[in-house]
Design brief:
By secondary structure, this protein is an alpha/beta fold. The protein has a single domain, classed as Rossmann fold (3-Layer(aba) Sandwich), CATH 3.40.50. 47% of the residues lie in helices and 22% in strands. Strands 5-4-3-6-7-9-8 form a 7-stranded mixed beta sheet, sandwiched between helices. It has a two-stranded antiparallel ribbon with strand order 1-2. Helix 1 crosses helix 8 and helix 7 runs antiparallel to helix 8.
Length: 264
């Protein structure tokens, strides 16, 4: 297996929420956040989004349109939520068409998140077709041109070197492979802006403190959304990384966006 190096990820400074930190410290700080929240990550997703994250992930799966025998690589895949949804959808189609089973590989930089994902897969009776690896998005432990689809959900804003991660995710895709990114967006419609800010900066850190016992991690997560680029800017970054036919869709008044790109 070969992977691209996380080029320049240790040089200069990076955003860690509203703080600037040394590039070589950023990845460790992010891992610390997810080490802290891993055990209740799925519960907090439900509470923070009032369950809307399930609809957003369904929209991601709908756009991906899984098919039998495909391989999905879910980067920053954490607890395996997207990978398990992909496999369930592909299994439904394979059963109707007598097709070969699909496979998924979850790659996440945080061992604690991967452990939670493995346990969840077993709880759901998924004992085959899904593998996991601990690695950053900038250095995926996969050969080039192996994946039919690559996803990253609520993870791109946490990588240390976003341009390098985008190049790396394109690298592992086959020609004709589909990349999809589901992420919170700073481009909320003006009508929702004040309410969204109040909810984000007051309610979400409070929920983190009550449910997880960690206010600071959820304060970081809120701040990281505000530092993430607008949809049009991210689309330009995807094109610069080599993706073609780039497009995006916004949901829930601009709270989240799904970006799509292809390796051609």
């Amino acid at each position: 297996m070969t992977g691209a190096s996380a080029k320049d990820s240790g040089s200069g400074t990076r955003d860690f929420g509203f703080r600037r930190v040394a590039g070589d410290e950023h990845a460790g700080l992010v891992r610390g956040v997810f080490d802290s929240v891993a055990g209740r990550y799925d519960l907090m997703n439900d509470l923070m989004s009032a369950g809307l994250h399930r609809l957003w992930k369904r929209a991601l799966i709908d756009w991906m349109s899984p098919r039998p025998a495909q391989l999905l690589v879910d980067v920053a895949g954490g607890t395996g939520d997207v990978a398990l949804r992909f496999l369930a959808r592909a299994d439904e189609i394979a059963a109707r068409k007598n097709g070969a089973p699909a496979r998924a590989i979850v790659v996440d930089p945080t061992e604690a998140m991967v452990r939670v994902g493995r346990a969840k897969a077993l709880d759901r009776g998924r004992v085959s077709g899904i593998d996991a690896a601990v690695a950053p998005a900038e250095a995926l432990p996969l050969a080039s041109s192996v994946a039919d689809a690559c996803t990253i959900s609520f993870g791109l804003r946490n990588v240390t070197d976003r341009p390098a991660a985008l190049v790396e995710m394109r690298r592992i895709l086959k020609t004709g492979g589909h990349f999809l990114c589901l992420e919170f967006s700073p481009g909320v419609l003006p009508a929702f802006d004040a309410v969204y800010d109040a909810y984000s900066f007051r309610v979400l850190p409070w929920l983190g403190e009550i449910v997880v016992g960690d206010r600071d991690s959820y304060q970081y997560l809120v701040e990281s959304i505000r530092r993430f680029p607008a949809p049009a800017t991210l689309a330009d970054e995807m094109r610069a990384a080599g993706f073609a036919n780039v497009s995006w869709r916004v949901y829930s008044g601009g709270v989240v966006a799904i970006h799509s790109g292809w390796r051609v």
